[in-house]
Design brief:
The protein has 219 residues and is mainly alpha-helical. It is built from 12 helices and no strands. The radius of gyration is 20 Å and the shape is elongated.
């Protein structure tokens, strides 16, 4: 199942709200997570209040992002519904955008918060697409060949290169442009320091996407 199609199932719609949520004035009237997600998707004053309350929940609250993403599903489809590959990519970018906005205080915008989240994610996606006009996957072996690693045995390096070449060929043969962009991003990030939470979230998402398509051995 693709990421977008899985959104309705990421939360139990009938589940009651956690105790922290019930204490929020913007959420107290809702009886279930499904009702909260529905309020998010209405994109009105009520939606802004609910989204603001959810973004203000503790960072270790793992229900916030799934409920927000379930509520934003219709808006995501309106943005990228014609391109399934871009739609699934956008879901990942929305998850990252939500994580970033949860660390922003005070959260003040003149636009609907639902649009803020999706537009932020779409801007990131557009930037990635602009960088990857040609979607052919970057050759990680060529990049690795420029680096000298004294503490790696020649045999191990050869095996690693053959394995990487096999993964790259598999991605190229798939004809999946979104998968190729994930591979290119992974090659770009592999040696880069991941200091911010957003960079670490992006790294995890890209690895998970590649693993989902190529199998656990590709991890």
């Amino acid at each position: 199942m693709e990421l977008f199609d899985a959104l309705p199932f990421v939360v139990d719609s009938d589940a009651r709200l956690p105790s922290d949520w019930v204490q929020s004035p913007a959420l107290v009237e809702y009886r279930s997570l499904g009702e909260v997600a529905a309020a998010v998707g209405r994109v009105d004053d009520e939606s802004d209040d609910v989204i603001g309350a959810l973004l203000g929940m503790p960072l270790d609250d793992e229900l916030v992002a799934p409920v927000l993403m379930a509520g934003l599903q219709r808006l995501l489809f309106l943005c990228r519904g014609g391109r399934r590959d871009l739609l699934d990519d956008l879901v990942g970018e929305v998850a990252i955008a939500i994580g970033e906005l949860r660390r922003v205080r005070p959260l003040t915008y003149r636009r609907r918060l639902a649009y803020v989240i999706v537009d932020r994610a779409r801007d990131r996606q557009r930037a990635a697409l602009k960088r990857d006009r040609a979607w052919w996957p970057v050759d990680a072996l060529e990049i690795a060949g420029r680096q000298v690693t004294a503490d790696v045995e020649v045999e191990d390096e050869v095996l690693d290169r053959l394995r990487l070449d096999g993964i790259r060929s598999q991605i190229a043969d798939s004809g999946d442009a979104a998968l190729a962009r994930s591979w290119n991003s992974l090659v770009e990030l592999v040696d880069a320091p991941r200091r911010s939470r957003a960079e670490r979230d992006r790294w995890k998402y890209i690895r998970r996407r590649l693993t989902d398509h190529l199998g656990p051995d590709a991890a």
